[in-house]
Backbone:
């Protein structure tokens, strides 16, 4: 049992820089695979609705705008999103997926409805390649 | 003319405005040192280096709503913070830094003023107990009983260790004690044991870790201060800050050799020496964890009181054989 | 003179709402009455409405500190029901995140114990070192809490060479700091005076009251699901079960610090022997009717999930028994002999994760004040009757 066992460490810290980051004046870098907010690449999406089915928070909403011209509208409700990136995993498009996560995390806002993003696009048609043939189906059976 | 000067003394320097400014500066110093010892930043953005943070806290508390519990004793509940502030501000007048005439006795420097200072410093403990009692809240009552239980532990060693250098100097007047040690600085060395004991007891009087049992946040919510809010809480916090300044001033006057050098240099001496004492108090605060009330009593009577008696013996023998 | 102190539901000592009503006499506690239910969220009912993939994320959000333990326990049970076997590399990465979570949870607990005892410097230091672990987890999985690294059939992300080296480098720093905390915890007089002899739970009482985790291991019972019933790859990894003999809060601290050192050894073994290969297999959508019990050693003790499937893509019934629920009975026993000043420490020593344990509902009649316990089937019948007139909207708007 030593009295003041802590003392040398304490005094050493008096001369070290504090471990606190002076946010918001200095920010830390997020690593490469950080899960920020999801967004869509409209030119790649084939409107298979796999992301809408697998989203745990019902945050993706795909609706048909015009059936003959194959125009769809996707709304991502960022206020419901739990940032799990399951939509990115479920997207069957290859080699570049239609859903991607960016690195934004400072998305607080005063109004919940300002956080929703909308895209209107025409459904992409993938050219059928031999190894990619199963992935061109609109509704993959998993 | 004399009335104007007295009014200036009481209100500006060394009165309430100076005490307010200096005690908030001391609280900032304490918080900054405590934070740096723990490798974090402390107050940063209010004023340069966060120096206005305690003032900001005070202003914020004054602006908040003041709630008095229904069953509480209303006159006692409301007047206690004001009494406390008055008591510690009066105690601050007795520090030997602003009486420039050591020969004559004035109303702030007279034979026996060290006893009066110690007495005035024990009264806040009673005020804390009454504050806890008159709140009629369960947690406040427990906090109040803990404050009195701790008083049984640390009061005797504190008195003995502070009065031993006075015994060696042969006077009960703070200004004369300071003058004695300024003349013979080597005689400060036998009092080191008393200095350490007095530091620990002052830490207990100010209710800081390891003795912050009466307002232990994680156990009894707020202790004696649970029901206080708004202006009353602001006055209580200001009272704790001024108590910090007065206690460190007392320790610096008795153990570190007083504040020589007249008006300006003496004031600089005062600031430097009280900041040294506050640095040591913050170090103790960061170093240890809170102990239980029964452990305080056993620690005080098993270790502190015998060491204080030893210090008293050393000073009596030194006075008898050497001087 | 006896009077009742209410600790909670709102109290600075508790991180989550729970009501402990103590009957005290002076400073000694005579009796303790425990009331739960302030944090009930209806997780088990919601799990029946979501598919297997969506349930992984729901299970994660039962708790913030032990999120991976609930997700892994569920995924292990679901993989048994779906009859798939994850590959070795996937299991190694899953256990790596599990051990990193154990490290971060124990460092968090050390800080909380310091804060409850009033030792704030210790609290600041351990949480500063915990940031190293949080940064590692962010690098591996993309988030600091709720790692979501599990997928049905393996894991979702792979480790590359740079990340592996970074983990091995951080282990050196963590090992040095943990030895330092062991020295402080055993030698700082005021801290030891607070922890020693507090919350005594003898070995017989621990077995009688079904204590789990470090609470039981500090009473000398060598019980660990990783050794008794090895899941994933724990039968290949060499490690020891840590116990202590003092049966009090100091023993629990020592057990947790020793477990930290064991976890560092396990992580080093995993990183040095990571097998190459796939990280996951394809999982079917539907499960055949079956039922499974899945056990997992969370940082707080043994975590049990019971899952029942009925052939569709949603589970029929999911029951979660969190470790804190098993430790409540032991807590009441420990509180009966203590002082008021020890209440936060005794309660914090079982590492309470109250939101994990909120699975029971007790209905109190507002008018008469009487209480009755209602069966789940009755609750389900009432809820279905109320919901039947309005169909479940696929896309529903908030009523605000």
Residues:
């Amino acid at each position: 049992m030593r009295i003041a066992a802590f003392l040398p460490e304490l005094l050493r810290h008096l001369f070290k820089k504090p471990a606190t980051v002076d946010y918001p004046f200095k920010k830390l870098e997020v690593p490469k695979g950080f899960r920020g907010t999801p967004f869509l690449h409209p030119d790649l999406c084939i409107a298979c609705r796999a992301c809408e089915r697998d989203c745990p928070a019902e945050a993706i909403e795909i609706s048909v705008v015009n059936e003959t011209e194959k125009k769809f509208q996707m709304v991502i409700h960022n206020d419901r999103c739990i940032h799990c990136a399951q939509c990115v995993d479920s997207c069957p498009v290859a080699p570049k997926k239609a859903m991607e996560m960016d690195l934004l995390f400072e998305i607080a806002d005063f109004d919940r409805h300002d956080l929703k993003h909308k895209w209107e696009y025409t459904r992409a048609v993938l050219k059928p390649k031999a190894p990619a043939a199963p992935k061109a189906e609109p509704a993959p059976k998993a | 003319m004399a009335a104007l000067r007295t009014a200036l003394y009481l209100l500006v320097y060394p009165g309430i405005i100076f005490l307010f400014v200096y005690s908030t500066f001391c609280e900032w110093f304490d918080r900054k040192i405590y934070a740096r010892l723990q490798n974090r930043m402390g107050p940063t953005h209010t004023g340069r280096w966060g120096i206005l943070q305690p003032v900001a806290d005070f202003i914020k508390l004054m602006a908040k709503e003041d709630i008095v519990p229904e069953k509480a004793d209303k006159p006692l509940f409301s007047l206690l913070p004001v009494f406390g502030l008055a008591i510690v501000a009066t105690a601050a007048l007795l520090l030997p830094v602003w009486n420039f005439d050591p020969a004559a006795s004035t109303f702030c420097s007279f034979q026996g003023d060290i006893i009066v200072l110690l007495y005035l410093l024990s009264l806040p403990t009673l005020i804390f107990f009454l504050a806890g009692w008159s709140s009629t809240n369960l947690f406040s009552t427990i906090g109040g009983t803990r404050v009195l239980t701790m008083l049984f532990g640390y009061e005797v060693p504190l008195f003995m260790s502070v009065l031993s250098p006075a015994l060696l100097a042969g006077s009960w007047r703070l200004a004369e004690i300071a003058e004695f040690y300024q003349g013979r600085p080597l005689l400060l060395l036998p009092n080191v044991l008393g200095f350490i004991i007095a530091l620990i007891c002052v830490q207990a009087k100010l209710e800081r870790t390891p003795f912050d049992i009466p307002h232990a946040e994680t156990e009894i919510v707020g202790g004696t201060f649970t029901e206080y809010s708004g202006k009353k809480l602001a006055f209580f916090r200001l009272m704790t800050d001024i108590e910090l300044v007065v206690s460190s001033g007392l320790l610096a006057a008795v153990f570190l050799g007083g504040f020589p050098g007249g008006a300006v240099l003496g004031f600089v001496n005062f600031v430097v020496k009280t900041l040294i004492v506050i640095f040591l108090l913050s170090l103790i605060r960061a170093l240890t964890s809170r102990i239980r009330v029964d452990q305080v009593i056993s620690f005080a009577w098993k270790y502190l009181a015998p060491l204080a008696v030893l210090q008293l013996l050393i000073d009596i023998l030194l006075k008898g054989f050497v001087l | 003179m006896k009077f009742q102190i209410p600790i909670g539901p709102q109290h600075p000592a508790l991180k989550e709402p729970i009501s402990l009503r103590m009957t005290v006499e002076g400073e000694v506690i005579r009796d303790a009455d425990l009331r739960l239910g302030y944090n009930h969220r209806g997780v088990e009912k919601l799990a029946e409405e979501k598919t297997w993939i969506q349930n992984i994320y729901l299970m994660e959000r039962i708790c913030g500190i032990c999120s991976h333990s609930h997700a892994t326990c569920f995924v292990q049970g679901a993989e048994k029901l779906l009859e798939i076997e994850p590959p070795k590399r996937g299991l190694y990465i899953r256990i790596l995140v599990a051990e990193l979570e154990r490290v971060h949870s124990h460092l968090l607990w050390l800080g909380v114990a310091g804060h409850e005892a009033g030792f704030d410097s210790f609290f600041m230091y351990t949480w500063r070192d915990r940031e190293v672990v949080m940064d590692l987890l962010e690098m591996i999985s993309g988030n600091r809490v709720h790692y979501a690294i599990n997928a049905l059939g393996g894991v979702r992300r792979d480790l590359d060479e740079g990340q592996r080296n970074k983990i091995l480098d951080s282990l050196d720093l963590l090992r040095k700091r943990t030895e330092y905390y062991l020295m402080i915890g055993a030698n700082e007089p005021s801290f030891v005076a607070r922890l020693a002899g507090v919350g005594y739970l003898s070995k017989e009482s621990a077995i009688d009251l079904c204590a789990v985790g470090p609470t039981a291991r500090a009473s000398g019972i060598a019980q660990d699901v990783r050794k008794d019933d090895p899941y994933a790859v724990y039968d290949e990894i060499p490690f020891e079960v840590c116990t202590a003999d003092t049966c009090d809060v100091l023993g629990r601290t020592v057990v947790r610090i020793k477990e930290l050192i064991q976890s560092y050894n396990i992580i080093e073994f995993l990183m040095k022997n990571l097998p190459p290969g796939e990280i996951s297999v394809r999982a079917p959508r539907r499960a055949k009717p079956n039922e499974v019990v899945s056990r997992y050693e969370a940082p707080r003790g043994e975590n049990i999930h019971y899952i029942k499937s009925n052939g569709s893509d949603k589970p029929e019934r999911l029951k979660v028994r969190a470790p804190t629920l098993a430790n409540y009975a032991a807590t009441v026993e420990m509180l009966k002999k203590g002082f008021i000043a020890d209440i936060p420490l005794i309660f914090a020593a079982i590492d309470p994760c109250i939101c994990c344990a909120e699975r029971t509902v007790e209905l109190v009649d507002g008018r008469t004040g009487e209480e009755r316990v209602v069966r789940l089937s009755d609750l389900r019948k009432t809820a279905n009757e109320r919901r039947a007139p309005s169909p479940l909207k696929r896309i529903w708007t908030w009523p605000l």
